[in-house]
Design goal:
Two copies of one chain form a homodimer. Chain A is of the alpha+beta class. Chain A contains 15 helices and 18 strands. Chain A folds into two domains: 283 residues, Zn peptidases (Aminopeptidase), CATH 3.40.630; 147 residues, Alpha-Beta Plaits (2-Layer Sandwich). The radius of gyration of chain A is 23 Å and the shape is globular.
Chain lengths: 455, 455
């Protein structure tokens, strides 16, 4: 029984696997900030060297941004292409971190040990679960049980500017029987899932200009239009009192949940008040009449991710500012057209603008939602392997976040993706104090070892 | 003719007067920022020394904040108490200044020479017009024509926390026949005015807290309430479509303009489109059906002076933030009760708050509007003296800014204030590139010399 030997090896080698992950977590590969571009390069180099050490033909591929990493293993049978990303989110506000973000540590908590540090969950810890599974197979049997290729990108947290051109140019090399993606979470804390529905994303940054310079509100207050007032009014009008987004045609292409999926989600026993209670809230803020899982997985959203204008320092300054700005994002589902959503948003903002104000737009990310065709036999084999490892029936689920890569593999390469991840809702990804449960890491490695065997 | 000799001396001494003002402008007396408190003290010392040099019994009076300056001259007849403030506004954004804010310079412009630097107009340049007029009388005649006292404060730009306690404790010493205040502007660019209506101010800072920490909008977007959304909606609801403020009882105590004053204002030939055109706007943003002068002088307002929340750096971060904040101010007129306005604002914000969000308030300034009783004969004498100097009929006007000191003199000391100033609308007070016209300074000194003679 090779698989049992491989699982035993994974258990015995756990400390070494953790040390390798720690090395990768120490590299400050923040992709959105040009100051860290050498670190992004160093993370790619680290991965190339590590993959070579377990027999992959691995190389760094330059782009106009951060490099891709491509690797091919020797093997036969089913061919899988694994995707992950080695870049991480910015770390501000730094003063809220309990330990430095790039000095990873194992910390004991009431719920078990965790790996603490930026990227531990999103996505370095997750991608290393797959690499370690390959390493274990190689160590125990001298080979991989199937044909494995690997593709890592370094711009996932900064809008993936190089991804689509790269995938178009290298579609043949990226094609396999199925794509494996490890950048998602468990269906429930103790129940694994395969994500088959991913929300898309439209990001927009806007700046409204009113007066040509900052004014004194004593002298001009009343007569001069304040761009913050314009911005507040236009953004407030994006939601109605029922939590629905008001843009023209926003819900075009938003499907109702199939009855079968709705029933499966019902059985997951998701409690909105527990989910929200962990972050100090209690009432779902989305569309009235939609369940909590629908609100985070299968319904579209609009959020203001940042807003600024006027005097924001200590004390008080009665300025009537020249400019006010905001960053806004939309999460898309089903067949919503991202370009149409962007156009509708811009039309809404322009319609709200007084004649003597200006508005400037810049786009950040534009991707539709993805839905996988789960009739490929690999899906059911992987679901059974996950169920074996976690001893809970694995489910096909949705994901609120945007992982455009799955859609790109569908449209550009023509392959379906299985999104299998081991993150928890409280991993604080994109926040201070990101962590990854030690159990997620360890059982994640074991899960992939089983899936490789099953395929 | 002593007055003519005094005016001739002022003309001859202009360069020296400018050099003295430049010395005072170099002192970085930003009162709202504790880092500059030594500079505030130095500005007070400078004024005490200068007033002593022209025969005043001057001294610095400590407070729990920045010190007051009090000075009494020798003289008989009418007793005037002159008020000004030696503190200045912060200087950010520093990169918009053409020359450093605390390195004052004389700069030639198409409209004549100007004194460029923070405080040149608000209020160091203005207060020195009065000091120089006293100096000239003293130099030419050896004495002041009437009894003159002087009172400078150093916290006007930071809410004057020490002012009311100080005035209550020293009401007898502050009492004179009439108070003179030089912290306002010309009625029109070439027409002097005496301000008899001043708007009050209520300043509020708020922070709305939603989730207990910053969240990832992919994971929580839709179900978790975003405090920026709450803030936008609550602030947007402060104005209706006609530019009116919607707070309960906001217009209680707002008087209609007396016909006589309305007629006088009509004759000032104020053009909203010219006034707004100078700052890149064209349409009055205040209450529909009110003239431009009403909107800036006699109608109450609400402005958001600052707003911030979420990710505001370069690039894009799909954060769903824990907190969102804003600074809001109201300008009050007539008998509006500042405490009632504050209460109504806080009630409005609380009513807009979802059950699981919190809001914290902090107040910055709370003062009602002031209206002067102009039947004291000093008013008409001063108006004639101003008309003589500027060769344009001086007018009784309103002022959009909040100068609570006039109300304090009315209520605490029991004296009426004449607000006479020489600032121009384009002086950029509270903004980068503050300036004071050389003509404002020079004719300002001459104006006070005439007013001292007339009283």
């Amino acid at each position: 029984m090779s698989l049992n030997n491989v699982l035993a090896h994974i258990d015995a080698d756990q400390d070494n696997a953790l040390n390798r992950l720690m090395d990768l977590l120490r590299i400050e590969s923040i992709s959105t900030d040009p100051a860290y571009s050498d670190a992004c390069d160093a993370a790619a180099d680290w991965l190339v060297d590590d993959l070579k050490s377990i027999g992959f033909d691995a190389s760094k591929r330059p782009t106009t941004g951060h490099p891709m990493v491509m690797a091919h293993g020797v093997g036969s049978g089913t061919h899988v292409m694994f995707y992950g990303h080695y870049d991480v989110q910015p770390v501000d506000p730094l003063d809220l971190w309990h330990t430095p973000p790039f000095e990873p540590q194992i910390i004991g908590t009431p719920n078990g040990k965790v790996i603490h540090g930026r990227g531990s969950s999103d996505d370095k810890g997750q991608l290393m679960t797959f690499v370690e599974a390959c390493r274990a197979w190689k160590a125990v049997t001298g080979e991989l049980p199937i044909k494995v290729s690997i593709f890592f990108e370094g711009e996932e947290e900064s809008g993936s500017p190089s991804l689509v051109p790269y995938m178009k140019e290298n579609a043949d090399e990226l094609r396999a029987d199925v794509t494996l993606i490890c950048d998602t979470g468990m269906a429930r804390p103790d129940t694994p899932g395969i994500v088959t529905m991913l929300r898309g994303l439209v990001g927009e940054e806007i700046t409204i200009t009113g007066p040509s310079r900052d004014l004194h509100s004593g002298m001009y207050g009343g007569i001069a239009m304040n761009p913050i007032r314009v911005l507040n009014k236009a953004l407030a009008a994006l939601h109605d009192d029922n939590g629905r987004v008001t843009l023209d045609g926003f819900y075009d292409g938003v499907p109702e949940l199939p009855e079968q999926v709705a029933a499966q989600w019902q059985s997951l026993d998701f409690k909105s008040d527990n989910f929200l209670g962990e972050v100090g809230l209690q009432n779902p803020a989305g569309e009235k009449g939609r369940s909590g899982l629908e609100q985070i997985w299968s319904r579209p959203t609009c959020d203001v991710n940042g807003i600024w204008g006027g005097y924001t320092g200590d004390g008080f300054k009665t300025v009537l500012p020249s400019k006010a700005s905001a960053k806004i994002s939309f999460r898309l589902v089903g067949q919503q057209d991202p370009q149409k959503i962007r156009d509708a948003f811009r039309a809404h903002m322009r319609a709200q603008l007084p004649a003597d104000c200006d508005i400037a737009f810049s786009g950040h990310g534009l991707s539709g939602a993805s839905s996988m065709e789960i009739d490929h036999p690999a899906f059911e084999k992987a679901r059974v392997a996950l169920t074996d490892e976690w001893q809970k029936e694995a489910a096909y689920v949705g994901c609120g976040g945007s992982i455009p890569i799955a859609g790109h593999f569908q449209k550009i390469v023509g392959t379906q993706s299985m999104l299998i991840g081991f993150g928890q809702d409280d991993d604080n990804i994109h926040s201070p104090n990101e962590k990854y449960d030690l159990q997620s890491f360890h059982k994640g490695v074991r899960s992939w070892a089983r899936i490789l065997a099953a395929l």
